[in-house]
């Protein structure tokens, strides 16, 4: 079940967010795209982990991160590659553990700071980056 959830999350996320590799021409490969996506989530998770003691600091740092990555996210969304089922299966095999670890850390941060309206707004804003 966990594998299916991660597979779904990776496939969905691969179509929506991630920083664009500087100087890349044309759409990135599926693996490159998801690698960048996982890196994005790991960066968010690092902020959540670093600031786990202070929901206010976490919110401020996530807001700064979100603002600094809006242009690259928009550029990658515009160049998102189509990912076949075969590619998706290989991607899950390669990135499942890293993505699951980052997602768990982010989820713990959301749970720990769920009473912070400002932080919940920030997580909502990060979700909007995919649109």
Structure characteristics:
mainly alpha, 5 helices, globular, 75% helix, 131 residues
Polypeptide structure, described:
The protein starts with a helix and ends with a helix. It is an all-alpha fold. The longest helix is centred in the last third of the chain and has 28 residues, at 85-112. Helices cover 75% and strands 0% of the residues. The chain contains five helices and no strands.
Helix content: over 70%
Give me the Rg, rounded.
Answer: 15 Å
Number of strands: 0
Low-pLDDT regions: 1-24
How would you sum up the global shape? globular
The assigned structural class equals: mainly alpha
When the domains are counted, the total is 1
DSSP helical segment count: 5
Task: Detail the topology: elements first, then pairings.
Layout (H helix, E strand, L loop, with lengths): L1 H13 L15 H21 L4 H24 L6 H28 L4 H12 L3
Helix pairs in contact: 1-4, 2-3, 2-4, 3-5
Task: Write a brief caption for the model.
With 131 residues, this protein is mainly α. 75% of the residues lie in helices and 0% in strands. The longest helix has 28 residues, at 85-112.
């Amino acid at each position: 079940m966990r594998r299916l959830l991660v597979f779904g999350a990776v496939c969905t996320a691969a179509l929506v967010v991630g920083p664009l590799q500087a100087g890349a021409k044309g759409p990135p490969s599926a693996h490159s795209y998801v690698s960048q996506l996982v890196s994005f989530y790991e960066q968010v998770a690092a902020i959540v982990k670093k600031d786990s003691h202070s929901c206010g600091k976490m919110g401020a740092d996530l807001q700064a991160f979100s603002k600094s990555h809006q242009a690259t996210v928009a550029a990658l969304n515009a160049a998102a590659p189509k990912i076949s089922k075969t590619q998706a299966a290989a991607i899950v095999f390669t990135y499942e553990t890293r993505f699951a670890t980052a997602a768990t850390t982010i989820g713990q941060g959301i749970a720990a700071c769920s009473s912070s309206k400002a932080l919940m707004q920030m997580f909502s804003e990060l979700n909007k980056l995919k649109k």
